[in-house]
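Good day; I would like, with your permission, to put a structural problem before you. What I wish to show you is a protein chain and, alongside it, a tokenised description of its three-dimensional fold. I would ask you to consider whether the tokens describe a fold that such a sequence might reasonably adopt. You will find the record immediately after this paragraph:
***
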Amino acid sequence: MLTAVLLIPTGIGAAIGGYAGDAIPVVRAMAQVCDRLITHPNVLNGAMLYWPLANVWYVEGYALDQFAAGEWGLRSPRPNRIGLLLDAALEPDLKLRHLQAAAACQATLGLTLTESITTDRPLGVCLQTAASGATWGTLKEPGSLLRAAERLVQEANAEAIAIVSRFPDDLGSAALHNYRSGHGVDPLAGAEAVISHLVVQHLQVPAAHAPALQPLPLDDSVHPRALAEEIGYTFLPSVLVGLSRAPRYTLQPEADTLWQTAVDAVISPATALGGRGLLALARQGTPILGIANNTTTLAVTAEGLGLDTIPCQSYAEAIGFLAALKAGVNWQTLLNQI
């Protein structure tokens, strides 16, 4: 069984995976070689678009780091009962749109959802940009988020949580213009990661986030990579589909559970190698594949970290390495270096 972890950190302007769902073609191709491919929601979330695959495991970023560090195991995916958590800051029309999206996923896709719960206070999402250009964010009311999540688990028996929070509209910002033009950093992604991390860390259940925004004005110059976020009123469907079969987490050895020692390879942009999960897997000797043409705003390289990696120019080359690994073929023979 070949098990690989595909990492594309969010909010760092990745050339592939820096937009909603634009890394899905990579996942689809890589999943043909891997028996199990573990990746995180921002790689698979395409707003209204998604492509579920039985051997692709949808694991939230904090949980993925815990798994890589050997702290948590991943249970084999099975259907989840999803709780919908709504920010009290949502205007009535936006709240209705998201409730309708959830009902549509129940009726059309057969997903199982609990009754929704609204936070007792507006969450107060604040967006920030680091000096590197990477995006992140904070919440004014994290306690309200966690109280609502607790109710979904304890009262509604939710096994996974989809979070919808109201994000600031900033129609005139340069960041939004650049992003829609196909050459900027996702201004929302870093804050989204903070929100899901809080819930997963607190409750140890799968969670993912969909930002709520008023629809943007039509613009015929929007780049194709940004269009998945332009074709509807909500980004929720891909989140619900991903969570519907997301692996649950365990802190104890159990049957049918995957642990970090089963990982055969990790794939990441060559300039974004400093993540906690990647470094934990590197310490256990897992091969690290650095993808050169997936550029980011960061400069965290193998050379700077003293890591021994397998440099790959593209994901196509990485897929070739994984195929060789699965077949037991020495990679160097394919490069005519033996």
User: Anything to note?
Assistant: The mean pLDDT is 93. The longest strand covers residues 160-166.
